[in-house]
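Sample 3 of the quickstart, ligand nicotinamide-adenine-dinucleotide:
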Amino acid sequence: MSRPRIGFVGLGQMGRPMATRLAEAGYPLTVFDAAPFAPIGSATSATALEGVAGVDVLILMLPNSAVVTGVLDELAPRLSPGTLVVDMSSSEPLQTRALAARLSERGLRFVDAPVSGGVRGAIAGSLAVMAGGDPGDLDELRPLLGVLGKKILEVGPVGSGHAAKALNNLVSAATMSVTVEALQLGAAFGIAPETMNAVLNSSSGRSNTSENKVTQFMLDGSFASGFALQLMAKDIRIAVDLARSLDRPAEISDRVAEQWSRIAAEVTPKTDHTQMYDLIGDPK
Ligand code: NAD
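Result:
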């Protein structure tokens, strides 16, 4: 498909820079968010959800499966058969499969294509995209996804992208938990967190947290990565729910889920996930 007409729903921390890149790449684009939003370049701003109906590809970048399902329940009857629905949110794989099956009955195609790389990656177009769906549909989407990400990983059938994303964030969160714990323990022993993080980054304990989050968002007190703590807690919950549904043990993952769920219940939707640096050291 060359230059498909794109509808884009969800212009938050991630969706807005992603939609901006698509507009800048010349795609005919119609955008919508439930909250008031500023126009995006050449894109048409829809004033209601139904304004994105007449498109070839519908991209969703929404908080979770419940919101995605609500939006598609409303919109699906207005989409033409053959429309390719692409859920780039971090959604629940089993709900994604059920949703894709329902949409398929209406002749709608579905690909899950969640991303990793944060707001910086969304702005730079350097996201990792993990895609689940029909290989032909993924081929069709490649040029478009290439505007948003540098690595487009085909993971498997529908739902596999969402499963892979939740598992990635489980690893990311667990690494953050233990990294922050080590920094706090080091500090209690008299090692400055800056020094301890330099040790990690020069040694086998280094991670995405130690390399890209500790100095950048934690030690300077900015906590401004743009990824909400409650969204990360949601992703970890999706991963451990997956373990339950597969009847697989997940001992460490369950501990990580308990910790993030407890802290997520005590913060606001705006609290950044990097604030774990402050919150983890003070268990109630
Ligand atoms: P966000 O909360 O900043 O944005 C979500 C947007 O959806 C908001 O603008 C909100 O108004 C809109 N919205 C909510 N309900 C709606 C509805 N019914 N109709 C239309 N719009 C609606 O979240 P985000 O950080 O952009 O994350 C979006 C998704 O991407 C989440 O699933 C998140 O887990 C995932 N994600 C986020 C990051 C990150 O760094 N922020 C990175 C990778 C993946």
